[in-house]
Amino acid sequence: MASDRxxxxxxxxxxxxRFVRVLLDDSGSRVFDYGVPEGVAVSPGCRVxxxxxxxxxxxxxLEVTDYSEARGIRMVSEVLRSDAxxxxxxxxxxxxxxxxxxxxLELAMRAVLPQVIRKSEMTHQQRQRVxxxxxxxxxxxxxxxxxxxxxxxxxRALAQAGEPVSVAELARTTDASHAVVRALEKKGLVxxxxxxxxxxxxxxxxxxxxxxxxxxxxxxxxxxRVCASLEPLAEGAPAPKPFLLHGVTGSGKTEIxxxxxxxxxxxxxxxxxxxxEISLTPQTVERFKSRxxxxxxxxxxxxxxxxxxxxxxxxxxxxxxxAKIVIGARSAVFAPLEKLGLIVVDEEHEPSYKQExxxxxHGRDIAxxxxxxxxxxxxxxxxxxxxxxxxxxxQGKYELLQIRQRVDDKKMPxxxxxxxxxxxxxxxxxxxxxLMTAIEQRLAKREQTILxxxxxxFSTSLLCEKCGHVCSCPxxxxxLTFHKAANRIVCHICGHLALAPSKCPECKDPGxxxxxxxxxxxxxxVQKLFSKAVVKRLDADVLQRxxxxxxxxSAFRTGKIDILVGTQMIAKGLHFPNVxxxxxxxxxxxxxxxxxxxxxxxxxxxxxxxxxxxxGDVEGEVFVQSxxxxxxxxxxxxxHDFEGFWDQEISFRQEWDYPxxxxxxxxxxxxxxxxxGELSAQTLAKSIADGAPAGLFIGEPAPAPLEKSHGExxxxxVLRTRTVQxxxxxxxxxxxxxxxxxxxxxxxxxxxxxxx
Length: 756
Fold this sequence. Notes:
By secondary structure, the chain is an alpha/beta fold. The strands form seven sheets. Strands 11-12-10-13-14-9-15 form a seven-stranded parallel β-sheet, sandwiched between helices. The protein has a six-stranded parallel β-sheet with strand order 16-26-25-17-24-23, sandwiched between helices. Strands 2-1-4-3-5 form a five-stranded antiparallel β-sheet, with no helix packed on it. The chain has five domains: 8-97, PriA, 3(prime) DNA-binding domain (GIY-YIG endonuclease), CATH 3.40.1440.60; 125-197; 217-408, 3-Layer(aba) Sandwich (Rossmann fold), CATH 3.40.50.300; 410-456 and 518-647, Rossmann fold, CATH 3.40.50.300; 663-750, Alpha-Beta Plaits (2-Layer Sandwich), CATH 3.30.70. The chain is built from 22 helices and 31 strands.
């Protein structure tokens, strides 16, 4: 709406010589034009406050221009400090994500610029420090001790310290509260000052400098090739081709990452190191901080387990240029580094790089794209590369680097397959007799064992033998998992929990029994079998405290734990030379789910878990327990044969036109009303078919494998195409036109990794 010509605001509009296009926070993709007051510096990516009707809102500048066709343009109220915005490269990246992943631009911007940074009122933490102004005479101090002993104690402590002391520290040592300090301040006996303090998630850690390790012949060849790609590029030259480093477990890939980043730092540039899971971040940080401690290089960390304050301060440490190395999970790919020289994506095959909420980006793919945009090198590493990445090698898009041997000529672990169909049902069929013997031998030699089962809890369900009732989640179409220590039954989908019943809730019969096995049950059985051994469990249920993961791994590293039982968080990236035995309790767990990637994921997981064994001087041994021992995924993993698995699996994918030969788009429709959700899915399918891009395959709308979740019925529509961006734009047009009932939610997952 245009301003009245007699108002001062209209005069400001006429005076504006520059205009900005602003994307408002929480606005979807709506963009508005504003004028810029004379003399105010503004650039794409910066954060601004702008008037919207009677309010003032925050937004991000997308473009600066000297012309606007909009009428009634109002002026930018305030340009926020320059270190709270985005650089042009990240702004461009967000726009690409919105287009490719079929999501509102504002959601893509929110992924790139975290909410904790978008809050302009967020500032550095201020810490109060106390300085002693004067100490009263002894007589006055004695009188103070009678009337206000805490004040007197605080004064004496300050005098003994001889230097400024924080209020929090003073409270710990003397029980002097903030009220005590304020009383002393009023009397003129102390002066309270504010000091800026950065929150450091590793403030209590000490890192001892560690030198670079000598590279063997294979590592040297790979490192030389990576170094060549780090040379400065000529003006206008394209970014170097992405590298796929296929190195067997224990082949020293991390040392190559470290030395390549060292070279990047010497060139005055910066680097990002991505790890697939938060659980791997502490050990990676330890290695990096130890390596670069002597050079006083700042290593910043970004992941979702940081507090808001820690994340805020780490982000600004990067934005200011003080940190040149960033380590973190998938969101660290958006770290606001300047002069980016290298992005490393470790364990590039991991599904956890895929974001599960909109924007549903893949961290590995965004890393490759950002490297292309910023003309820097990108190194993808894995012992079990994804079929998509290896296909890119075959297509000439990526360059393959290989390390086929472990460092110091250590042997790959010997893998034995245990056919559980032939095992007795003793101990519930959990531990085979040969695995029991192998554990006993390791305990006798004071060697360590890892037992892997990718399912937490004690049992997977509670079943009544009389009436057949299964305790199920009221919100999801899954059975409830029994957790014995808490005596609770829990839904691992929505979090619903209830007290475990002592008798059947349906027929009241006491013969309700446990079915299935989780890590809690494995821990209990193993502790009974080996009563003198120290057995610990590592899964999401025991990681309630922030430091629990690091403490458990530290105890395992120092030999205080004999047997470690855990889920996939112990399956990759861990290096414990004294682990000589790995037992995989149920190799079939993920093999038979309705997902075309089930075989690939099983092969990858088995290979990665097996790789934890034999990383020291003693050859490792792995026992794989399975009820389908002749599955190709298990047999190829047994022989460490990635190429063999690739040849078979890629033929299957090509025959059925699955990724990587096409892009798969999964559209989910959710509603608390089953019929309404189903009708909406059918309507959507018909609308997509009208005017769809050529070559689009549209599956029939159908209930999802997990039909109900969080109280909503779920329906799926699977699309496959070779031109994904054309499809994304078509979908956006369809979704903008269709009006669904208020309780129907529709989501689009481009390059879907989770089909359940």
